[in-house]
Amino acid sequence: MSRAVPEPLKTIDGFRNRSVLVIGDFMIDRYVNCQGRKLSREAPVPVADYISEELVLGGAGNLANNLLALGANVKALGVAGKDEAGKWLRDELEKKGADLTGLVVSERPTSLKTRFILNHRQYLRIDKEIRSDIDSAATKQFLDNLHDLIQGSDVVVFSDYDKGVITPVLISNVVEECRIQGRPVLAQPKVRHYLDYIGVTMVKSNVREATIATGVSMVNDTSLRNMGHNLMSRLECESLLLTRSEQGMILFEKKNITSFPALKGPKPGFNAVGVRDCMTAVLAMSLAGGAKMRDAVLLSGLAAAQQADKIGTVVVDLNDLRSQADTTVSLAEGIVQVPVY
Fold first, then answer.
1. How far apart are CA 168 and CA 170, in angstroms?
2. CA angle 86-88-94, nearest 5°?
3. Domain tally for the chain?
4. How far apart are alpha carbons 202 and 280 in whole angstroms?
């Protein structure tokens, strides 16, 4: 007599052979590791000795990296510069197996974030980038490839870091093409274009960004519910997931509102980067596999909890996620669901 496979493991099994189109701001995270030695006499700053440095995929690149780690076939739609950083970005994505058909090479410099890690803590970040919207010629290149890129995808994900790649024109064209082809769309927006994601399947963001986008003040649970209903109506989406840090997550659907407890928070002084990309990758793969939304959100929260106390840009570990998937069964006891009347 065979035993039934638990739902969380079924969800993970559904990740196999999924194809995901990642649209967004592809960036590079550069880490410079230093050891503090003394205080400077020249200014009230520490003097440190250089230890090492490394480059890792950031922004939409980190989302792509997380999806690849989950076993997805990833296609990238975005921009890389003609500079040395852009060459590294393209080489790294290609080496990991991503399809770069939709990645436009541009005169625009590649977004580079340099973080100085002093005594295992982030001390300073310097951004080298242009944040204005890309030109219409680059957007036209995106649109020319859109039909074919979406046609071979199980799910499409917007990874918006407000660096100019994602524009209202691109959003509306992607959503319409996905509607025609029957593909789900997951959006991870920033504030500037938050309310342009009309017609996507699911929106995932944090409460702070949602508050700024809607102008609804967060006073109590009632105002949170009002904001959720407001966004669901304005974006015409099927579901909305708002993350609330140590207060957990809240999922809005047409018939239910579901509250999820916080699984784990970061330890003081730790600097995990890209945790939201871990969550979004798991959500995207779950959507592609047709998982129940509650299971998808729980698994994504578990993936984030695994990375919360790490330093640097984090990537979900599929084996760790699988080994801990059964814990979502007990975590489910903390879920509170109420119907929408």
1. 5
2. 105
3. 1
4. 11
The separation between CA 334 and the C-alpha centre of its own chain, rounded to angstroms, equals 25
Distance between CA 328 and CA 11 in Å, rounded? 12
Highest-confidence range of 11-15, 132-136, 220-224, by mean pLDDT?
132-136
Task: Check if the beta carbon of residue 295 is closer than 8 Å to that of residue 8.
Answer: yes
In a domain, 34, yes or no: no
Q: What is the extent of the structural domain holding 212?
A: 11-27+60-110+136-339
CA 333 to the chain's CA centroid: 26
**Secondary structure (3-state) at 109:** coil
User: For residue 270, is pLDDT > 70?
Assistant: no
Classify residue 245 as left (phi > 0), alpha (psi -120 to 50) or beta: left
Contacts of 42 (CB under 8 A, 6+ apart): none
Q: How many residues does the chain have?
A: 341
What CATH number does the domain containing 266 carry? 3.40.1190.20
**Which tokens is 88 given?**
């590294």
CA 169 from centroid of its chain's CA atoms = 21
Cα–Cα dist 137/165, whole Å: 12
CB–CB of 98/89 below 8 Å? no
Q: Which residues of 58-86 are buried (b: 16+ CB within 10 A; e: fewer)?
A: bbbbbbbbbbbbbebbbbbbbbbbebebb
Q: Does the residue 128 lie in any domain?
A: no
Written as six digits, the tokens of 3 are: 């035993």
Residues with catalytic annotation?
277
Amino acid of residue 42: E
The confidence score (pLDDT) of residue 309 equals: 64
- Please list, in sequence order, all residues whose beta carbon lies within 8 angstroms of the beta carbon of residue 65, skipping any fewer than 6 positions away: 56, 57, 96, 277, 315
Helix 136-151 with 168-181: angle, nearest 10 deg: 20
- What per-residue confidence (pLDDT) applies to 217? 76
